[in-house]
């Protein structure tokens, strides 16, 4: 598989339509390339492999996000409320991942709403009951693809 073909697979696995994927991958004759790609079993297999790896990666990222929400420290957000003079640097250096909304009503005070920790814990429990997602699945798929590319003498 050429680099262009691998890029095509990457874009299709990320949800781009065939024409856009071919253009982004650098193909010039879109019609000819579309017919060629649709007939090749190795292309279909690569798209499926990448799609599965991306899906597992997304599930892992979601799990990590729910963990952060469930077990995060709210101190940075609360400290901002009590600070007299807020600077952009104060906000930039604060961990506000657990904050869902910040409002400053007309009276000048600051209202902060946090994500629901209980819902995050429920999602974690639901996810672990369905399937225990680990990053090793995505890592193994990524390394397998890199080894295959290296063996074929292609660029990564």
Annotation keywords:
single chain; 156 residues; mainly alpha; 2 domains; two-stranded antiparallel sheet; 67% helix; 6% strand; elongated
Task: Produce a short descriptive summary.
The protein has 156 residues and is mainly α. Helices cover 67% and strands 6% of the residues.
Explain this structure.
This protein has 156 residues and is mostly helical. The chain folds into 2 domains: 1-39; 40-151, no CATH class. It is 67% helix and 6% strand. It contains 8 helices and 2 strands, in the order ααααααββαα. It has helices spanning 3-13, 18-25, 30-39, 41-71, 75-82, 88-92, 117-130, 135-151, and strands spanning 99-103, 111-114. The chain has a two-stranded antiparallel ribbon with strand order 1-2. Strand 1 and strand 2 form a beta hairpin. The longest helix is centred in the middle third of the chain and has 31 residues, at 41-71. It is elongated.
């Amino acid at each position: 598989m050429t680099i262009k073909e691998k890029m095509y697979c990457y874009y299709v696995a990320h949800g781009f339509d065939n024409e856009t994927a071919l253009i982004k991958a650098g193909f010039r004759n879109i019609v000819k390339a579309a017919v060629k790609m649709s007939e090749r079993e190795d292309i279909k297999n690569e798209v499926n492999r990448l799609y599965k790896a991306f899906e597992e990666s997304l599930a892992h990222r979601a799990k990590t996000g729910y963990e952060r929400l469930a077990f995060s420290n709210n101190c940075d957000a609360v400290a901002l409320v009590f600070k007299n003079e807020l600077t952009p640097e104060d906000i930039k250096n604060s961990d506000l991942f657990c904050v869902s909304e910040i409002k400053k009503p007309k009276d000048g005070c600051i209202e902060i709403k946090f994500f629901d920790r209980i819902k995050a814990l429920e999602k974690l429990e639901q996810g672990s009951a369905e399937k225990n997602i680990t990053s090793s699945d995505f890592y193994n798929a990524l390394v397998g693809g890199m080894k295959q590319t290296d063996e074929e003498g292609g660029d990564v």
